[in-house]
Each structure stands twice: as C-alpha cells, then as structure tokens.
Amino acid sequence: MFTSKNAGIALLTGSFLLTVTMVLHPAGGSFEHLLKATTMIVISHAIAIIAMPVCYVGFKGLYQSLGHEKLLSKLAMAFSMFGLTAGMLAAAINGLTLPIFINRFADADAAMIETLKPILKYGMSLNHAFDYILIGMFCISVLLWSIEMVKTKKISVWLGYFGIVLIVAAVVMLISGFVFVNLYGFRVFVFGLVAWIVWGGVTLIKRTEPENIKSKL
Fold first, then answer.
1. Alpha-carbon gap, residue 73 to 65, rounded angstroms
2. Are the C-beta atoms of residues 204 and 4 closer than 8 Å to each other?
3. Cys-Cys crosslink for 112: which of 25, 108, 153, 212, Cβ 3.0 to 4.6 Å?
4. Span 174-186, mean pLDDT?
C-alpha cells in the first residue's frame, strides 16, 4: 500500500537528487570549456532526469494527502506534472543533446567554432524557455498546494505559509530584475524549492493518520 511515509521518502529522495544536480552542475563557458566538461554535464543532468519521476511519486502522495477531490490540489498536481516534464526536456537539451552535439566537433578549428556559436545560442535559448516553464509551473503548483494546506490544515499550516512567502519572494525578485535562468539564479530557485519539498517530505513521513494513501499511481 502506498502510504504518506512512502510519498515523504520519495520527496526527500527527489530533493537530494536535485541538490546533487545543482552541486555538480558545471558553469557555462567557451566551446572548449564545454567540451572538457561534457562528462560532468551528462552526469549532473542524468541525475536531474532521474529526479523527475521520483518527485512525481512524492507529489502524487502529497496530492492524495490533501484530498484528490480538492480543486486546488488537482490543479497543483497538474501544474507540477507540466513542470516536471519541462524540467526533463531542459535537462535533455542542456545535459544530453549539447554534449552529443559538441563532441561531434571536437576537432573543429576556430572558423568552425564561430559557425557553431549561433546553433549553441539557439540551444541555450530553447533550454531557457523550458526553464521558464519549469519555474512558472512549480511556482503556481507550490502556491496552490500551500493555499490548500492553509485552508484544510491536513498537513502543515506552517509549510503552507512558507510556500506562500517563498512564491511571493520569487515574484518580487523577478519584478526586481533577478534572472532565474542563469546558473546562479536557477540554483537559488531550486534550493528554495528543495527547502519546501524537504519540509513537505518530512511532514508526510511524520503523519500519524491511520488511513493510507490509496493510490495505484
């Protein structure tokens, strides 16, 4: 039977994998730098891709715990699924497609590298587009779940308040010109999200409700 504890463990595991991804994620740079860093690029993004379905399992448990009949909880689950999909695509583009592409030109001369730069910039722009979708979907998802937590008091009211404050802070930062899609900005977003997920995971593990989450996933 799938229980709150299982969902909490999944959330903690997903958070750990996302943290490892951000720690290992190399900074961008020149063509030569990217070529040297391809192994670490692949490893860090492969971990991120693995984290997506693990987080899905945890989010599904959170959704069931708050009540699958609740509209806000349903919407939050839907937005989180789109966010996870966008995250997988972003990781595939930046972490798999990019290394495969540049390794085919490992012996390129300076002229060829200049020719490749517009293609690399297009790939980066596509990656940023999926990053924006991921950030937007997760912000909406966390906000909706946090509001539902405050309303229903089924999991943790304080986690709900923290989620609301977190998203308000993200909006203020965005309006102030903070860039979330560069490496530093994305790390700030991910670590903020991880803090919320970890709290949610610990809360689910400590739940004492006698009933299990009835879900076949």
1. 10
2. yes
3. 108
4. 75
In the prediction, which pLDDT does 216 show? 47
Quote the CA–CA distance of 144 and 166 in Å, as a whole number: 12
- Torsion angle defined by CA atoms of residues 183, 186, 188 and 192, in that order, rounded to the nearest 10 degrees: -150
Q: How many angstroms separate the CA atoms of 83 and 89, rounded?
A: 10
Residue 215 and residue 60 in contact, taking contact as beta carbons nearer than 8 Å: yes
Q: What is the DSSP letter of 210?
A: S
The residues spanned by each domain of the chain are 4-205
The answer, yes or no, to whether residue 164 has pLDDT greater than 70, is yes
H or E stretch including 185? helix 183-205
Cβ neighbours around 179 below 10 Å, total: 12
Q: What is the DSSP string of 112-168?
A: HHHHHHHHHHHHHHHHHHHHHHHHHHHHHHHHHHHHHHHHH-SS-HHHHHHHHHHHH
Among 49, 43, 51, residue whose Cα is nearest residue 25: 43
Mean pLDDT of the chain: 83
In this predicted structure, what is the pLDDT of residue 213?
A: 47
> Quick one: pLDDT band at residue 2, thresholds 50, 70, 90?
low
What local confidence, expressed as pLDDT, does residue 73 receive? 85
Count of other CB atoms within 10 angstroms of residue 173: 16
Cβ(198)–Cβ(166) below 8 Å: no
Residue type, position 93, single letter:
I
Tell me the residue type at 42.
V
Residue with token string 């497609």 = 97
